[in-house]
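look at this record:
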Amino acid sequence: MSTPQQSQAPHRGLATYRQLAPSASVRVSNLCLGAMTFGLAHQERYGEMTKEIAFAIMDHYYDNGGNFIDTANVYHEGQSEQWLGEWMAKRKIRDQIVLATKYTNASSSGSKDPNEVRANYVGTGTKSMRLSLERSLANLQTSYIDLFYVHYWDYTTSIPELMHALNDLVSSGKVNYLGISDAPVWVVTKANQYARDHGLRQFVVYQGMWNAAMRDFERDIIPMALDEGMGLCPYGVLNQGRFQTAEGYKEREKHNPGRNFIPLSERDKQVSAKLEALSKKTGHSLFNIALAYVLHKSPYVFPIIGARVVDHLEKNISALDVRLSEEDMAEIESAYDFDHGFPHTFLSGTLFDGSKPRGVTGARDVMFNNMGNPRFEWMDTPKSISLRWTRFY
């Protein structure tokens, strides 16, 4: 019997693939290309973009091995989906792309009628879901979506209605996997348990905002993902332009064509200072270190990266070469005291003693498990996959 041969060198960049989640076998690139900036409808918010530049960005991503692209029905009033669909059709590569889109925000019917009743074009309910999916399929020039997200939890749809309606889409062959974005943890766990109890497809990916200055994922979302066998697709990993060098902040004040509607905070500057110090120490850019930070925090993490020019994308890809030690990670996190909140600080023993607040990632961190006799040994929490994979042929 032949023995798999180990490659002599790691396969660089986007052309090395990982399983999306323990509950989803599809293989994707380590960075997901976000298409939110592709379109003309909201340039005052996201910055200038042309179809030619968008196609060049997607070409560069794909030509470097990238296969995971994220959009939504609402981005630029559907134009993001349309440009993406046109690009895939032009290159004849639809089946090579793992395509993610979303519903819940109001989808556009294309009607110019000012009296059009759009009450059921928005929300998590069954009618909005089906209408939005059909429009997305048309925009994207495809017969199926690989990953279909609930874009946000609107507190209007029951879990049974939601999960049965989503499962119908999977059964129809129009959707392969289900994801959920910007939703409370209790919604995701309740929905997934309902799905398991009734033989339905569950959510396999959670999407939300996460970066070194906004670590809320650590409270409940990361533990939930580990327990539910879900992948994580964080957006805002570069803090939406608010991570900058000291010199970069000066330039930002002069000219910022992108997310100029988001104000800076003192925390942004504190974390940026730590990132800049590591940048000088390692030789990697501040932005690459910020991106590598989330890649090193947990398994099955696929950051969504946006770009307005090809150079932005190329610089983000090089973040896959960054290796951060535990000391580096701790140095980044020392920028501010992240409060995990109750009950996490109670369990870690830091709620009342005045020490730096800590969370709990497993049995080892629970104060009561380490008091008195007998003594126990505990399993470590799963770590992020090494970014230097072994490749087998």
Summary: The chain has one domain: 17-326.
